[in-house]
# Entry
Amino acid sequence: MQRKPADVVADNNMIGPSPVFFVDGNNNPTSVGGGTQYTDGAAAPAHPTGNDIVFNKAGTMTAVSDTNPFPTSATVTPPANQRVNSQSGDFVAGSIADLVTAVSKLTSIVTLLQGTLTVGGSVAVNTISNYATESGNLAAILADTADIETNTGLLALESGGNLATLVPGVQGWIAASGNGTASQDNALAFAQQVRKIALYNASANNVPLEFDQTSTATSFPIPPGAFWIIDGALCTNVHVFPSATLPINTTSGLYVKGWK
# Structure
């Protein structure tokens, strides 16, 4: 008679209680017990034999794995004030160790940056629209600009549209005074700044000259007998570097006149 899987087989040659054996589907003996035993601390086998741990995953029995871990949840209630658990030397003297104080100080800095900047006690503006509060200076400039735009008596134009005069001409001239010592720079000064300058060289030599800066022997010269009118000079001093003694504003010399 053919035995079925898991049949109990008796050995008639043995004396005493009859032993029994469990066999598998191929009639090979099989064991019954707790499965393979593993030693703690030993190297893990490449393909261990054992049972899987399964859990109910939304109605489906699922083996525990990296992609299907046990579902867990936790609720953590931290203290009201979070502080840094620091050790000696972690923070320099005066460091802030709590976030509430840090946020408060940062808010104060932002408030300062958004505030009004005062410079020298006269500027208290943070937008260009408040220009009138700057001691009235910017407002006055704006008013003057409006006058220039509407009052042709203040600002004349050349035919090409360039600015020709800043203020109306004044009758009468101012003579520059000073010496004409040979082979050195001489400053011929007007009593005040002039807008136009008339120069006439009645001497027999070239006269190198500059306006409001030191002259040298290589400065641009006015030749003998030349008559120049410089418009828009806005000059206070005419500097000359004559090769010989040069009379100023007299016969055989250099005439230097100015107009406001």
